[in-house]
Specification:
Length: 240
């Protein structure tokens, strides 16, 4: 466990879809400077955990972010505190340009025009490919470019922590490595990251720690570099 200051801490966290409990009594934390990855089979509850942290689904338990409880706040209030969720599926605006998509991330949290301008410049620093497509519409972007845009839009919300859901989904291996390299660069700028990732071997190369989910329960956690070599974990959760 990291000795750095705790940024996010959840305890006794359970989440529901209607009457169905999809996450059972989860406890986890993310510290300053960390990249933490959630792994598990399809349907294990990984995306549910991120959605519960960002408040978009019904849940119970305690969530503290930067020392303050946020589990009673609305999703809009949580993101304004700096806990920013980039959901699975990218969900960019296909009829808006790259610049307009980025600006929408800042508008959503009430940033000033000057802050948004600076935020766009920062996002383009991380994603120079987007600078080349700045006037292109969202629908015309490749899958990798759309994922870069989704993360870039999240940066415009001025995050103090990022929740990333399947950032490599559907991407070619070379693009996946590019996206993860940028995620690491963002993390090194001071933004801790909690991510869900099916590309487990790649994620564990970049992550500091790992939590393993099985049927909605956190069943194991540890140092990522140690879990990737754990035969039982590899066989049961990481696809051999």
């Amino acid at each position: 466990m990291s000795t750095a200051a705790t940024v996010l801490e959840a305890s006794g966290l359970s989440a529901f879809y209607g009457r169905t409990c999809a996450l059972h009594n989860a406890t986890l934390q993310v510290s300053q400077g960390e990249i933490v990855v959630l792994v598990g089979a399809n349907g294990a509850g990984k995306s549910t955990l991120l959605r519960s942290l960002s408040g978009v689904i019904e849940r119970t338990g305690r969530i503290s972010f930067l020392g303050d409880r946020v589990d009673k706040l609305e999703p809009e209030q949580i993101v304004r505190r700096g806990l920013v969720h980039v959901p699975e599926g990218r969900r960019i605006f296909p009829g808006l340009t790259v610049r307009e998509n980025l600006e929408a991330g800042g508008d959503a949290v009430g940033r000033s025009k000057n802050e948004i301008r600076q935020g766009v410049e920062q996002a383009l620093h991380y994603f120079p490919r987007l600078a080349q497509r700045i006037t292109s519409y969202g629908w015309s972007l490749s899958g990798g470019e759309q994922q870069m845009l989704a993360i870039g839009r999240g940066l415009l919300a001025n995050p103090r922590m990022l929740l990333l859901d399947e950032p490599s989904l559907g991407l070619a291996p070379i693009v996946t490595m590019e996206v993860f390299s940028i995620i690491r660069e963002i993390n090194r700028s001071g933004i801790p990251i909690l991510l869900v990732e099916q590309n487990v071997k790649t994620a564990l190369r970049f992550a500091d720690r790992c939590y393993v989910l099985e049927a909605g329960r956190l069943v194991k956690d540890g140092v990522a570099s140690e879990l990737v070599d754990d035969p039982a974990i590899v066989k049961a959760y990481l696809g051999g």
